[in-house]
Amino acid sequence: MPDTFSDPVPSPCVQRCQLDVDGRYCLGCRRTRDEIAAWSTSTPAQQRAVWARLIAEPLPADSFCPRCGAGFSCGSGGQTGGCWCADLPQVLPPDAGSSCLCPSCLREHLADAHRQRGLPPPADG
């Protein structure tokens, strides 16, 4: 989201365009069909209002953590539009066949892996 009202408003599109089963909103960016269709002709104020709604709404759970069972959204929420986990330090190779961990469990896993290697705990990205 832009820092000032004079900055251009970037599109919320994350290039994962797919409508929900009812055809009401995009599963990638979570905008409604009407918001998507109107984006290029919307005023910056209208675009900021869409962003405000998207930020205020919790991400729907599309994955469940195999460690704690918590629901979380995988594949979005990151600072650059990708998955939130891409914002964390990339220090561990992924385990073959493993499922994604929720944000809390992944941070705990990273800290444990650092401790086991005698390294200082990672800083969040």
From TrEMBL:
It holds the Pfam family DUF1289. Transmembrane segments: none annotated. It comes from the Bacteria. This is DUF1289 domain-containing protein. It comes from Microvirgula aerodenitrificans.
